[in-house]
Amino acid sequence: MIRSSRFVVVLLATLLSLATLTKAGPPLICHSVEIGAAKSLPWISHDWNLSGGETYDTKNLVRDTLEILAPDTPVLVRMETLRRATLYARKDSRAAKELLARLHARATSAESSGRPDALAWFDVGYLAEAYKQWIGQSWMKVAKDEQNPAAGVDGYALVKKAIGLRGLPLR
Prior knowledge:
Largest sheet: none
Strand content: under 5%
Number of helices: 7
Number of domains: 1
Radius of gyration: 19 Å
Order of helices and strands: HHHHHHH
Helix content: 55-70%
C-alpha cells in the first residue's frame, strides 16, 4: 500500500512537472498568439514549429511584415506577426536588421512630423524584445559572432511609450 501511494505521488509530481513544461520557452517566441483567420506571415502550425513555412523567402520578410502592420491591424495580429517575423529573421541577419531599422524609422518619422504613432512605437518595441528573447541568445546561437540587432534598444520602454501615446489600452 505504501509503495503504491509513493508511486502515485511520484507519478502525479511527474505529470504536473510535464504540464508546466508545455509552456516553457521565451514567451514572446514560444507562445503563439491566437489570431484566427487574420492575415499574417505564412506559418505551418501554431504548435512547437518554430521554423514557419519552410519555403518562405526571407527576402520578402521586411516588405510582407510592413504591409501586414497597417494602421488598422489589431494589436494581437501585430504581436503574432512580429513573433513570426522574429523566427524568420533568425535565418537572415540582413532582414532582421532591416526590419528593426524600418520599424524604428517609421515610428520616428511619424513623431518628427508632429503625429506620433502609438502602434508604430509598439511594433518596434515588441520586435526589439522578441529579438532579445531569440536572436543572439547563447543557448540558440548558430555562429559565435551572431549579434542581436536589438542590443541596446529598450523595447519595454517603447511599448510603454506607445501605451502613453494611445491614452487607452492598445486594441
